């Protein structure tokens, strides 16, 4: 079983080296594909000797991840954020659990940072995902090539592409909810304020479910704002 690990990047010079270095031990079983959205820093230069493919795509995680999937050779696609680290046995766990009746899934998550609420946030994310069958990109979504194609790939939207994909994948099969944890940065919560960001993320999700434009939501998300002026 061959894996393709697809990493969308945009100005990730501070984190891409550690991300890819941690993945080197997996290269016998997985190809590493970095899809850059037009970084103005040296993300691509840093990644050049640590990945199998460096691709350039229009900015936006959905665009970038779809572009990477289009060039991937693996049977299983694993979408990984540049500030997220897989557990050591990640590929073995996926291989043991994925089958015709369970064609996609995600990991539990732990958030790294100084604020004690990050542990609470991660716990809530894991339980919400378990109860709803919806994963976030931070949880390292993995999917068979066939199921990804059947779901129509990531939808071409500026935000909530992970939620939209999961809704389509749930029609194909229930998700595999692995208890092993990926470790992801809590930098967004610490940058904009933990409690503010919790409220903001719930607000954005609610507005998405109510039909708000993903483009508008993406602008608010990037700026850590509740409303546009």
Summarize the structure.
The chain is α/β, with parallel strands linked by helices.
In words, what does this structure look like?
The chain is α/β, with parallel strands linked by helices. It has one domain: Spore Coat Polysaccharide Biosynthesis Protein SpsA, Chain A, CATH 3.90.550. It has helices spanning 16-23, 43-47, 61-71, 90-97, 117-132, 145-150, 161-172, 187-192, 194-209, 214-223, and strands spanning 3-9, 30-36, 53-56, 76-79, 84-85, 104-112, 142-144, 176-185. It has an 8-stranded mixed sheet with strand order 3-2-1-4-7-6-8-5. Strand 1 (3-9), helix 1 and strand 2 form a beta-alpha-beta unit. Helix 9 runs antiparallel to helix 10 (214-223). The longest helix is centred in the middle third of the chain and has 16 residues, at 117-132. The model has no long low-confidence stretch (mean pLDDT 93).
């Amino acid at each position: 079983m061959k894996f393709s690990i697809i990493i969308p990047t945009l100005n990730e010079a501070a984190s891409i080296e550690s991300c890819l270095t941690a993945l080197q031990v997996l290269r016998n079983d997985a190809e590493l594909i970095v899809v850059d959205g037009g970084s103005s820093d040296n993300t691509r230069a840093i990644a050049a000797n640590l990945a199998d493919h460096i691709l350039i795509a229009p900015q936006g995680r959905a665009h970038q991840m779809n572009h990477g999937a289009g060039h991937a050779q693996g049977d299983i696609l694993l979408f990984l954020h540049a500030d997220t680290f897989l557990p050591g046995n990640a590929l073995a766990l996926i291989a043991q659990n994925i089958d015709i009746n369970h064609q996609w899934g995600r990991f539990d998550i732990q958030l790294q940072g100084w604020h004690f609420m990050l542990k609470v946030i991660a716990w809530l994310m894991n339980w919400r995902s378990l109860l709803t069958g919806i994963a976030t990109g931070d949880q390292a979504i993995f999917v068979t090539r066939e199921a990804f194609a059947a779901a129509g790939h990531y939808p071409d939207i500026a935000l909530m592409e992970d939620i939209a994909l999961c809704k389509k994948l749930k029609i194909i099969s229930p998700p595999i909810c692995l208890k092993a944890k990926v470790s992801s940065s809590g930098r967004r919560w610490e940058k904009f304020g933990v409690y503010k960001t919790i409220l903001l993320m719930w607000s954005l999700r609610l507005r998405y479910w109510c039909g708000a434009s993903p483009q508008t939501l993406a602008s608010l998300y990037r700026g850590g704002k509740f409303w546009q002026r």
